[in-house]
Design brief:
- The complex is a heterodimer.
- By secondary structure, chain A is an alpha+beta fold.
- Chain A is 47% helix and 19% strand.
- Chain A is built from eight helices and eight strands; from the N terminus they run ααααααααββββββββ.
- Chain A has an eight-stranded antiparallel beta sheet with strand order 5-4-7-8-1-2-3-6, covered by helices on one side.
- In chain A, helix 4 packs across helix 5.
- By secondary structure, chain B is mostly helical.
- Chain B has ten helices and no strands.
- In chain B, helix 2 packs across helix 3, helix 7 packs across helix 10 and helix 8 crosses helix 10.
- Chain B is globular.
- Classes of the chains: A alpha+beta, B mainly alpha.
- Chains A and B meet through helix 1, helix 2, helix 3, helix 4 and strand 1 of A and helix 3, helix 4, helix 5, helix 7 and helix 8 of B.
């Protein structure tokens, strides 16, 4: 290892970017191996950075903050949409594994994907046969004891054998019907989630959509949210994070129109550390004046009665 | 856009960063209100291009939103860290060197103990730094400004000014010594 820099100012000169050539190479070579000097350099960087304050004051235009916050909102919504898609995929895999009694081969066939791909996805979503129901082999004989006896009773009349085979086929047919119905329900659920994601995309993409930031009110639980609404599309989307409600309480979102009483737009009680987001249809002809989240008795109230936790003006 | 509300004004940088980790957009807006002017000033001083300065300013705060984890409050103050990032980004742009997006946040190992969470504290420190620079001999001040705001090395400054390389080195060394001494003495007298 090279020797430590001889002067304390060497750290400031390096932080300043003044060193070059052999001096710079020697400094960097030493720095790569010396934690003590890396720490001194970090301190010098902090010290030298203060020179920034000597620059003549230039305030950024207000448009920069507007662009930044729009970028942040878009990123948050994109993240939400991604979560919706992720949840849909996870649910589909979980359902398929349950229907296949934990058999990855059968679940992969149901989903129409490669077995290895399903294993990767199950690992990604932390899905195991144990968490999706009892692990059974769907190819196993459903009536082992009975068939065991059948094998022993070789002299039973052929008619009885035919009756048993018919019963088994009937049972298998019923199972297939149930599986088909369940798969149809899953497909409908996934279609609904896909429709929701499309509605979110339409809402975000429309130039008529208005975004309202809901700010935390003094003394109320910590949180923030925003509402995107589009009166032409008749759609409203809430996206926010707020501390869980106290016992026996729920949060309630209200659309406060320019004319008329507040309209309930959803009752919720978030789980710690998770964002809430949902879409709903706006009643026709409603022009929002503001949005508010209040704390209400569990299950919500027809009209607001509790304190306002978040408020945003349209 | 509105400036910081009363609640945000009282929140410390560390508390606001913690809220950004929890995806609180109001916390990011509050930090922007607190430090955008300071960063915009240095970006404009280095780049002399308002559009480029605003692009970098927006990008720094957006990266802070997407991934605030590179900043560790235990290792120093946020403004010092942001200033190092802003200067690095601006000098890179000036030299047409484009590091991979996001690199700057993780590479900016800087430790700073300055606390300028209020506008008053910020103004006081600006006064101290400007005063310390003005107290330097003119040639030392010019050399340090070329290094800091133009990103020039010893050799580049010598080439620009026509002064011998050894003279430039001596000036810069003397300048950083004086600055450190002056700022340290001022900090001690005001603490």
């Amino acid at each position: 290892m090279n020797a430590h820099p001889t002067g304390e100012e060497d750290f400031d000169l390096y932080a300043l970017g003044a060193l070059d050539g052999d001096e710079k190479l020697a400094f960097e070579s030493h720095l790569a191996e010396c934690r003590q000097c890396a720490r001194k350099l970090a301190e010098a960087r902090g010290r030298i950075a203060m020179l920034s304050l000597a620059a003549p004051r230039v305030e950024p235009s207000p448009a920069v903050k507007q662009r930044l916050m729009a970028q942040v909102r878009t990123e948050s919504i994109t993240r939400s949409v991604r979560n919706i898609a992720d949840n849909a995929r996870r649910n589909a895999i979980s359902d398929a594994l349950q229907k296949a009694n934990g058999s990855f081969e059968d679940a992969a066939a149901m989903l129409g994907i490669d077995h290895e791909a399903l294993l990767d996805l199950a690992q990604k979503y932390d899905l195991h046969p144990a968490s999706t129901g009892p692990h059974k082999n769907p190819r196993a004989n459903p009536f082992p004891g009975f068939l065991g006896r059948w094998r022993a009773a070789v002299l039973v009349p052929a008619f009885a054998a035919l009756a048993i085979a018919t019963a088994i086929l009937w049972q298998q047919n019923r199972n297939l019907d149930r599986q088909l119905a369940a798969l149809r329900a899953t497909a409908a659920q996934q279609q609904q989630q896909l429709d929701d994601a499309r509605h979110v995309a339409d809402l975000i993409g429309s130039s008529d959509t208005v975004t309202v930031a809901l700010a935390q009110q003094p003394g109320q639980p910590q949180g923030s949210a925003h509402v995107m609404y589009n009166t032409k599309m008749g759609m409203l989307m809430y996206d926010g994070e707020i501390a869980p409600a106290p016992a026996a309480k729920s949060y309630e979102l209200w659309v406060i129109p320019t004319d008329g009483k507040p309209i309930n737009a959803g009752v919720f009680n978030p789980v710690t550390g998770r964002a809430d987001h949902w879409m709903m249809k706006m009643p026709p002809g409603v022009e929002p004046r503001m949005f508010a989240v209040t704390l209400e008795p569990q299950g919500g109230m027809p009209q607001p009665t509790g304190p306002m936790v978040l408020i945003g003006h349209a | 856009m509105s400036s910081e509300s009363g609640t945000e004004l009282r929140a410390s940088d560390a508390a606001l960063i913690e809220r950004i980790v929890q995806r609180d957009q109001a916390a990011l807006a509050a930090l922007y209100d607190r430090y955008a002017g300071m960063l915009s000033s240095v970006l404009n001083r280095i780049l002399r291009d308002t559009q480029a300065a605003e692009e970098i300013l927006q990008d720094i705060f957006f990266q802070l939103w997407r991934n605030p984890s590179p900043f560790d409050p235990a290792r120093g103050s946020l403004p010092g860290w942001l200033m190092v990032i802003a200067r690095n980004r601006a000098i890179s742009r000036l030299r047409r060197h484009n590091p991979a997006a996001g690199d700057e946040l993780s590479e900016a190992a800087a430790v700073s103990t300055i606390n300028i969470e209020t506008a008053v504290a910020q103004q006081q420190l600006i006064g101290r730094v400007k005063g310390a620079l003005e107290n330097l001999p003119a040639e030392q001040r010019a050399a340090i400004e070329l290094a800091y705001f133009e990103g020039m090395s010893h050799s580049e400054i010598a080439q620009r000014t026509g002064d011998p390389l050894g003279t430039v080195k001596t000036r810069l060394r003397s300048a950083v010594e004086s600055l450190k001494r002056t700022l340290h003495a001022q900090a001690a007298s005001t603490s």
